[in-house]
Amino acid sequence: MSHSETTLEPIAPDDAVDLYLTDRRAELASQTLDSYAYKLSHFTEWCESEGIGNLNELTGRRLLAFKQHRAQDLAPVSLKAQLDTLRSFVRFCESIDAVEQDLHNKVLSPSLNQGDRERDVLVDKEQAERVLTYLARFKFASMHHTLLSVLWRCGVRSGTIRAFDVQDYDRENARLRAVHREGTPLKNKENGERLIALSSDTCQVLNDYVDHTRDDVVDDDGRQPLFTTQFGRVSRSTIRATCYKWTHPCQYNGGQCPHGKEMDSCQALTTPNKAPSTCPSARSPHAWRRGAITHHLTEDVPVEVVSDRMNVSPDVLEAHYDRRSEEVKVEQRRGYLEGL
């Protein structure tokens, strides 16, 4: 036997995680500790499924197998966050003689490219309100104004925007119905179908858009799309271009560019599809959705309500969409605890 094998002390994965979290409790915020516990729960569940009851059996090859297992379900940004937490945990396990020394160096965390990093980008409340205020003043109830209002107020996906038909807007009850149909599928199919409550302000925009601004066209299936251009149902590329265009600061702040560009020659304006790489302020439809979800949570809308409204599970919401700072979260918790 090698020296490392003779000195290792048996311990179950979940017991080691408990020791790790207890050891970190004094130095970490409770929210961070909860996040570590959540990320490591996937590792202990995987160990159980693989029959690993003793961390002494952990090897570099098994760590790679866990990485590949999680890579099937996670975006690169989330996978990196989970593996970085695992590496810290494995380093702790080395200190208590639970695994071989230097095993943490065999936790291969992925490198991120610019596209992966953009997954954390969002439209914040200030930017969204400035865009919508400008559109309400100068392009009220235009297709762009209405589409972005629904994106921000409802936090829906691009596919859901495309799926809405005029009949899905219920004026009397102030709500939109998301329906999975052939030709305009929802991401989660029938499980994505739901009623979405609307504010009176959003209804006012929708009413004027449907009555006066909407291009009165039908699609190839004879349906009346809610969001249209003169060519028919709004396309995904049009939705993207709309989101990129109206998050350029020069569009809503009097033509002034904070990045030192001239509007007449700016590639982000002349070639909208290049907006993500040419304008640092440009934001995609998914950034609008992520921002809307974060805004709802910041305004103390319960996670369960946001989950149902935006059609995203609480686990995925926490991992991919909730971008509240720790300071915001702790102050929100304080509000619930005062008086107890």
TrEMBL record:
Tyr recombinase domain: residues covered: 117-334
An example Gene Ontology biological process: DNA recombination
Swiss-Prot/TrEMBL keywords: DNA integration, DNA recombination, DNA-binding
Annotated Pfam families: Phage_int_SAM_1, Phage_integrase
GO molecular function: DNA binding
Core-binding (CB) domain sequence ranges: 11-94
PANTHER family: INTEGRASE_RECOMBINASE PROTEIN MJ0367-RELATED (PTHR30349:SF41), PHAGE INTEGRASE-RELATED (PTHR30349)
Protein name as annotated: Tyrosine-type recombinase/integrase
Source organism phylogeny: Archaea, Methanobacteriati, Methanobacteriota, Stenosarchaea group, Halobacteria
